[in-house]
Amino acid sequence: MAWTTFPYRETSYAYPGKALEKNWQRLHGGDCEPFPADTQVQEAWRHYHAGDFALAVEAGLACGLSGYNVANKAAVVYASYLETDDAVKRRLLLEAAQRGEEQQHRTPEDVNGWYLHAFALGRYSQSISVAKALAEGLGGKIKHSLNKTLELAPRHADARVALGAYHAEVIDKVGALVGGLTYGAKKDTGKDLLESALQLNPESAIARIEYANALVMMFGRSKMKEAERLYQEAAACQPMDAMERLDVEAAKAELAE
Fold first, then answer.
1. Which CA distances in Å does 160 have to 14, 17, 144, 153?
2. Sequence-ordered list of residues with C-beta below 8 angstroms from that of 45, at least 6 positions apart, any chain
3. Would you say 203 and 29 are in contact if contact means Cβ atoms under 8 Å apart?
4. HEC states along the chain?
């Protein structure tokens, strides 16, 4: 397949040599991914952070199970932001979710085997409509993987963002009563998860974007001003890599509409 090129090339998104490890904590403050000992996996992450998503997937898969996290994250970010063909997007997301399931069986203590499974299924659900995904039982799988992520890594900010967004999207689609009774979705829980994610990873643009979206989905127009403030903060964030740049540009585009 032909991969769409990342449009915001910046030399600062390349992390040659020891620069990757030096900046690792900042780059992975949201997902708690440990710095890899394998130099080939390190190189795959360099491709990912630079926006070379096709190379990141290829290099990650070449490393076997130890490279699944970088391959899966690259595939999901690429599919979410840059792929324009819906069929290709869904294929990439389902393949990443399937690799996540493999990790859950073979390396169940790998935190991001659980998180990235949920991340991939969540984006896939959005691509087919959240209502359809709930009807197909994907909501339970997503929630289970996110809860397992937080059981293994309570300070996993990105899992808190995703689980907060889950509560909001369920309530938005089926209402607070059915959402609470059937799916365990609650407004206060969603809000608390997103608030805590921002406290854990205060430089995150995507946490602000998802928080803003969730506030409007759960509370309506009464939270519109707060949502706009969060989008403005997201647009003002300083991106450290390709994914963060895509988040910032998405916030800017939303404010421009």
1. 28, 32, 13, 10
2. 20, 36, 56, 70
3. yes
4. CCCCCCCCCCHHHCCCCCHHHHHHHHHCCCCCCCCCCCHHHHHHHHHHHHCCHHHHHHHHHHCHHHHHHHHHHHHHHHHHHCCCCHHHHHHHHHHHHHHHHHHHHHCCCCHHHHHHHHHHHHHHHHHHCHHHHHHCCHHHHHHHHHHHHHHHCCCCHHHHHHHHHHHHHHHHHHCHHHHHHHHCCCHHHHHHHHHHHHHHCCCCHHHHHHHHHHHHHHHHHHHHHHHHHHHHHHHHCCCCCHHHHHHHHHHHHHHHC
Q: What is the pLDDT of residues 31-53, one digit of tens each?
A: 999 999 999 999 999 999 999 99
> Rounded to an integer, what distance in angstroms lies between the CA atom of residue 21 and that of residue 37?
10
Report pLDDT digits (tens) over 57-99. 999 999 999 999 999 999 999 999 999 999 999 999 999 999 9
pTM beyond 0.85, yes or no: yes
Residue with tokens 């070449």: 62
The token duo for 182 is 């059937």
Sort 106 into a burial class: Cβ within 10 Å, 0-12 / 13-18 / 19+: exposed
